[in-house]
Amino acid sequence: MSLEQSLSAEEQYVDRLYSPDAVLEKIKQQTAAHGMPDIAVSDGYGRLITMLVSMNKTKQALEIGALGGYSGVCIARGLQPDGHLTSLELLPAYAEVAKQNVTEAGFGEAISYIVGDAKQSLAQLVEENKRFDFFFIDADKEGYQTYLEFAIKLANKNALIIVDNILLRGRILNEQKQGPAVRAVREFNINFASDTRLESTILPGYDGLAIARVK
Ligand code: DHB
Ligand code: MG
């Protein structure tokens, strides 16, 4: 999946059971070709995201952190026929690559990008009284708690909130690691698990995935 991420034998075994996904593989290649980091969500969690979007009959989805459009396609694949994904991306160059990739994958109409600081875009969406059925948080780790608060504000009842990388490639358990992102995600995880507004679980496979339903 990501930057020198070593997958366990079990993760590799499970991944091998699935045939390569040509569309998603191409997006990974294009993303790398543009010099962007190789940090798309794991293949296994990408499949889970498509399933959750679909099971929740999602019409409006919101993603925070587009990268090259890999997760965008995973989300768009599960949307209802008239569904839409709004994708927030800080960097114009990344949004451009993502737009190109998802258009090539056939989801150009289903996904729109808002470029800029996600906190401002989220405040704007709150201002506009927008509501969403599904959220995928996969941006700067220090912003996770703020993004979760915005997601809850913007959520329809029973909306799903998915959060990537809550293990930070092992750093979360390494006491030597005390950087701001690691500290923020440690605190985020504790708060997430005890948040009474949510019904949740956390999957420890790959780089960790937090999943919640807004009560
Ligand atoms: C990394 C992976 C991610 O998926 C991400 O969103 C940010 C960082 C990483 O492995 O460094
Ligand atoms: Mg991620």
Q: In words, what does this structure look like?
A:
The chain has 215 residues and is an alpha/beta fold. The chain has a single domain (4-214), classed as Vaccinia Virus protein VP39 (Rossmann fold, 3-Layer(aba) Sandwich), CATH 3.40.50. The chain contains 8 helices and 7 strands; from the N terminus they run H-H-H-E-H-E-H-E-H-E-H-E-H-E-E. Helix 7 (144-154) links the parallel strand 4 (132-137) and strand 5. The longest helix is centred in the last third of the chain and has 15 residues, at 180-194. It starts with 8 loop residues before the first helix and ends with a strand. The mean pLDDT is 97. Bound molecules: 3,4-dihydroxybenzoic acid and magnesium ion. Magnesium ion binds at residues 39, 41, 138, 164-165. The site of magnesium ion (MG) has 5 residues, from loops.
